[in-house]
Design a protein that fits this description.
Blueprint (H helix, E strand, L loop, with lengths): L1 H17 L3 E6 L7 H16 L3 E6 L2 H10 L6 E2 L2 E2 L3 H25 L4 E5 L6 E5 L9 E6 L1 H9 L3 E5 L1 E4 L4 E3 L2 H12 L3 E6 L14 E3 H9 L7 H13 L4 E6 L5 H7 L6 E4 L2
Parallel strand pairs: 1-2, 1-11, 2-8, 5-8, 6-9, 11-13, 12-14
Antiparallel strand pairs: 3-4, 6-7, 9-10, 13-14
Helix pairs in contact: 2-4, 3-4, 6-8
Length: 279
Amino acid sequence: MSEKIKTLLEALPYIKSFSGSTFVIKYGGAAMEEETLKKEFAKDVVLLKYVGINPVIIHGGGPKIGKTLSDLQIPTTFVDGLRVTDEKTLEVVEMVLSGHINKEIVKNINDMGGKAIGLSGKDGRLLIAKRVEGKDLGLVGEIVEVDVAIIKDINRHGYIPVIAPLADGIDGNSYNINADTAAGTIAKALGADKLILLTDVEGVLDKDGKLLSSLIQHEVEKLIEKRTISGGMIPKVECCLDALKGGVKETHIIDGRVPHAILLEVFTDSGIGTQILGG
């Protein structure tokens, strides 16, 4: 019992400090695949809302998209980790993200006592994008405009926005958006207090495989130069650095495979992942 009381007391100053804050959370990886983790994530998000924090959820869906494309015998390829998206692929992406995954997340949050609203970035022209330049990716876009009023209105009325990373194009097309990139761009547009990326690794590791619990911007840049940070972690830390430069106060890369990962990172002194700060 004393340990439980200690944990609650440890969380109290963080709850007080973050009340009224906006947290943008990129939801993906194992936390979206395993049934138990899905429920725990929903509980975490509901608790954030109950203590006065405004969570904004942006979700991926790569594995389900890949499986559906395979089932439909539609070939798919990647360039630098981004799915090349033609019109047929985009139809599947929209169907899976907006029609299945988004609604499942909304239901899980509602089942846990929250009030969630599911959106595509195309709804109300929430996200406006242009075609990614310099790469032959088809209908893959980068966000050029975010209508933050929509998100703020949803939050103000007590709801939790759950956003699928699709966008209307300035050229009239629809676009598939990388979920990490979408989360970072939305966090900047909102002036969010935190950007939290859920991954399938502990966080940023040193050359010996030990977790680096806290880093500042120039330390991250040096780790990239030394190739201590490499592979799939590079775009995630670059997303965090870009968000910090855009005015987001704090960023986090955490292990979504850990139950209640968000609460452990945000409301405890030690945290469980890597916090990246400006400077």
